[in-house]
Design brief:
The complex is a heterodimer of chains A (250) and B (567). Chain A contains eight helices and one strand. By secondary structure, chain A is mostly helical. Chain A has one domain. By secondary structure, chain B is of the alpha/beta class. Chain B has a single domain, classed as 3-Layer(bba) Sandwich (FAD/NAD(P)-binding domain), CATH 3.50.50. In chain B, α3 runs parallel beside α14, α6 crosses α14 and α7 crosses α13. Chain B is globular. Chain B starts with a helix and ends in a 21-residue tail after the last helix. The chains are: A mainly alpha (250), B alpha/beta (567). At the A-B interface, α1, β1, α5, α6 and α7 of A face α4, β3, α7, α11 and α12 of B. The structure holds flavin-adenine dinucleotide and iron/sulfur cluster (SF4). Iron/sulfur cluster binds next to loops of chain B.
Chain lengths: 250, 567
């Protein structure tokens, strides 16, 4: 089956109500480098292969992000369990390899780094995270399990849906503005996930581009000239039959 | 003989009274003349202390230094060396934003940090997108014309020469500009990338005119400023020195003329002499956490719309019990943001919007009031090009997470964005006050309260529909919307009387004759244009007014003539 991403039917807003989520495991498997869960749209693109072309300062920062996962110093072990399960659900990381997002969140909180603002009706971000962990476990107990991490996936999804729509109440949730708490924790998680080169591989992002820059950013009507030679090809342009033959996989 | 425009554009035209582009190094991005920077003792007053090394502060200092003033700039953040300190990475750029605690409140709290506040030498322009449109003549008289907001105590024509001077210094690249007071730019337009050209086609399809630029990004030879390499990280700090910020456009020259910048120094109080009511200098906490006092004959506060009011409110004394220059309860009021809703659109082919500077093309066709739209004033339309983390925030704002989030994210390369810049009206309750909580300097944190009014909402709603139409005409397959706000101005506005403003038309505090405010906080209204050029132009004009009025004797000439470098 050739992948057709020229059409937009795979997008959540464009799907018919009765249509199920497109199964990401139907996507091409990554053949070069790593993506989270090894699926993506650019199977032969590994941004890390470009690291030699990055300036030294940037290279150090990005490679360290991949190479040394910070150890947990801010969260307690139970919070880690709960929040890791939560992060896996809201970022759809349901198998290995996973980007260890919680470790980066922990590092940021431990170092006291903030994003420059706090809503008047919210505690400091570190306290928000702790209360969210508590609230998630409370939701689990309301559903007959000790911990959020022990809930079956469909119940975890249900709790997250309640969280995302600001509809959780009682206990820890009553001490928070729930919608704002959602935006705080998601901000940290998305920053951790999409700053990781594995995620860049998945989405085909060019990554750091200094000092090389770009020379091909031209018209969408000049399909052949719009991509640098080193940028990944999107899967729908690859005919799987031809491709497997060429690679001698048959 | 008049040269044809095509020849004048590009390398020929250079600023007359600013040698900054020649004082840089082609291959090193940091400033090369720091070893020649003046050091003034704390024991004697300088002519002027400037708080904040940003758009307003550095431009003012550079001009006055050339006129012989001895100037010290106090800057809370580091002295950036783009080679050493900046990274070509979204998350890694966090250090260039103001991330000290601030509280946000009101019905529509405004998110701060990377969204609107910079720190360090160069100020917010180190990570501004780079759009530098002028205000329209109408922006200075919205009360008279449209019955909303207030008029400025100055007009467009008071700033016109300053606009031209600053545009040459940045330098600005763009097409001839048909809106407002029509004008052209020193550098020609940059090439338009695929993502923006789709927007252009869409706009044409529904009768909307767009133009390339205006951006403060070199597009030709300009001293030792390299050409843009179209890598798209403008909001993370330009590691190339192609995008303008006062760090490279004004400070190199300022240093030659005796300006001292004290980085890592947080001003905590402007001090006053209780009997005369004049200010005497600035108390600050330096990089070693030691409190110091720099005496000065005059003080210019240039800390931007949140920090300028905060510093004045914190400068309480017996004479000014409610904060300096705040006798009419005007300090901190009428802060404004612009409505900056963005709409992303999906196309069948790859667009890769991470390439080329995010600011590419814009339209001011809807800038002026049109009664038939049902609200006063208007908006601009501009391209933006979010990197992955920012794009994820868009997807989240549209209500997606989990598998849906990943699906939209994998689709990144098929999307492109247009954003609005809607003029919001100045309201007294949109204000900065001091919270009870304090920061690491022991200074009360700013509480910034914001609520939209009906006119603001209608403006955004109308603009959103216009962008949706553009995308429809371009053939978009799907769109996503994020409501957001950009820029910060007001908070110490200039006006006609001490009762309704903080400073007069020459930026001088009504209540304190040697205190000036010279940054975005003096804006009485905000227009629908990005503010940086206007801030620099105001500083240029103020310097012109002050030049000859220095209080103490001129310093022994220590300026070096860098003109030889021109050859
Ligand atoms: C992401 C982003 C994109 C933007 N895009 C655009 C754009 O495309 N076009 C445009 O025109 N504008 C843009 N802006 C806005 C523009 O950068 C600002 O309006 C402008 O730089 C403000 O100038 P200023 O002189 O008022 O303050 P700033 O340039 O912010 O300078 C203030 C300086 O004062 C320092 N400071 C504050 N308080 C103290 C204190 N107490 N002691 C010591 N130092 C202090 C700060 O650290 C800062 O360096 C953007 C801003 C951001 C954040
Ligand atoms: S796109 Fe150009 S101006 Fe923007 S950061 Fe890169 S080199 Fe600088």
């Amino acid at each position: 089956m050739p992948y057709d991403f020229a059409e937009a039917h795979h997008l959540p807003n464009r799907r018919l109500p009765e249509q199920a989520h497109a199964d990401p495991y139907d996507l091409p498997r990554q053949r070069r480098g790593v993506t989270p869960q090894m699926h993506g749209r650019y199977p032969d693109y590994d941004v890390l292969e470009q690291a030699d072309h990055w300036d030294e300062v940037t290279r150090r920062v990005v490679l360290e992000r991949v190479g040394s996962v910070p150890e947990i110093r801010f969260f307690a072990m139970e919070e880690v369990e709960t929040l890791t399960a939560f992060a896996d659900i809201v970022l759809a990381q349901d198998s290995e390899p996973r980007i260890p997002v919680l470790a980066y969140v922990d590092q940021k909180l431990f170092n006291g780094e903030r994003d420059g603002y706090r809503y008047f009706d919210m505690p400091d971000d570190d306290e928000t995270w702790r209360r969210v962990a508590r609230g998630l476990d409370e939701e689990a107990r309301r559903r007959g399990h000790d911990r959020f991490a022990l809930l079956p996936v469909d119940r975890q999804l249900e709790v997250c849906h309640g969280f995302a729509t600001g509809k959780l109440h009682k206990g820890a949730w009553d001490t928070l503005n729930v919608s704002r708490a959602w935006s705080v924790v998601m901000r940290y998680l998305l920053q951790s996930f999409y700053s990781h080169p594995w995620a860049w591989n998945e989405i085909g992002f060019g990554g750091p581009a200094y000092p090389r820059g770009y020379s091909r950013f031209g018209s969408p009507h000049l399909q052949s000239a719009e991509r640098e030679t080193w940028e990944g090809k999107e899967a729908f342009e690859i005919d799987p039959v031809e491709d497997t033959q060429q690679r001698g996989l048959e | 003989m008049r040269l044809p425009k095509s020849i004048v554009k590009g390398s020929v035209l250079m600023p007359k009274d600013n040698d900054s582009p020649f004082l840089l190094d082609m291959h090193k991005r940091g400033l090369q003349n720091l070893d020649r920077m003046a050091r003034y003792p704390l024991s004697a007053p300088v002519d002027l202390v400037v708080v904040g090394a940003g758009a307003g502060g550095v431009t003012l200092a550079q001009r006055l230094a050339r006129a012989g003033w001895r100037v010290v700039i106090l800057e809370k953040g580091p002295f950036w060396d783009p080679d050493r300190d900046w990274v070509s990475d979204e998350k890694g750029a966090a250090g260039i934003y103001w991330t000290d605690p601030r509280i946000i409140s009101g019905n529509d709290p405004i998110e701060m940090g990377k969204n609107n506040s910079g720190v360090g030498v160069g100020g917010s322009m180190t990570h501004f997108a780079g759009y530098v449109p002028r205000f329209h003549p109408s922006d200075f008289e919205v009360r008279t014309r449209d019955g909303v907001g207030v008029d400025w105590p100055i007009s467009y024509w008071d700033l016109k020469d300053s606009f031209e001077r600053v545009e040459l210094e940045l330098p600005v690249a763009g097409q001839d500009w048909p809106w407002g007071d029509p004008h052209s730019y020193p550098h020609g337009p940059h090439p338009v990338a695929g993502a923006a050209s789709v927007a252009w086609q869409g706009a044409l399809g529904c009768g909307i005119e767009m133009r390339v630029g205006p951006v403060a990004i070199t597009n030709g030879v300009f001293g030792r400023r390299p050409h843009c390499i179209y890598r798209g990280f403008c909001l993370q700090g330009c590691k190339v020195n192609a995008k303008a910020s006062p760090l490279i456009t004004h400070l190199p020259d300022a240093i030659e003329y005796g300006v001292e910048v004290r980085a890592d120094c947080m001003a905590t109080r402007v001090e006053v002499d209780e009997s005369s009511g004049r200010c005497t200098g600035v108390t600050y906490v330096d990089g070693d956490n030691i409190e110091r006092f720099q005496p000065a004959d005059a003080v210019a506060v240039c800390g931007y719309a949140i920090e300028t009011p905060r510093l004045l409110l914190n400068s309480q004394s017996r004479r000014f019990p409610h904060g300096l220059a705040n006798g009419s309860d005007q300090v901190g009021r009428y802060v404004m943001v612009q409505g900056a809703t963005q709409i992303a659109a999906r196309f069948p082919y790859e667009l890769r919007m991470y390439k080329a500077p995010p600011p590419e093309i814009s339209s001011e066709q809807f800038y002026e009031t049109d009664q038939s739209r049902g609200f006063a004033r208007g908006f601009s339309i501009q391209t933006v090009g979010p990197l992955p983390i920012d794009w994820a925030q868009h997807v989240l704002a549209d209500g997606h997470w989990g598998q849906a989030m990943r699906e939209y994210m994998r689709d990144y390369n098929h999307w492109t964005l247009l954003g609005l810049l809607c003029e919001f009206l100045p309201l007294p309750e949109n204000r900065v006050t001091l919270a009870s909580e304090t920061d690491r300097y022991g200074m009360p944190v700013a509480n910034f309260s914001y609520s939209l009014c009906e006119n603001d909402r209608r403006n955004v709603e109308y603009g959103t529909n216009v962008i949706e139409e553009i995308w429809e005409s371009a053939g978009a397959q799907d769109t996503l919307k994020i409501d957001r706000y950009a820029h910060l101005v007001g908070g110490c506005r200039m006006g006609f009387t001490p009762e309704d403003s903080v400073v007069d038309s020459s930026h001088r505090a009504w209540e304190c004759p040697n205190l000036f405010v010279c940054d975005g906080s003096v804006f009485p209204t905000e227009g629908a244009a990005n503010p940086a050029l206007v801030i620099m132009a105001l500083a240029d004009r103020l310097a012109g007014l002050l030049k000859t009025k220095r209080v103490s004797a001129p310093p022994a000439a220590r300026k070096k003539e860098p003109a030889s470098l021109r050859r």
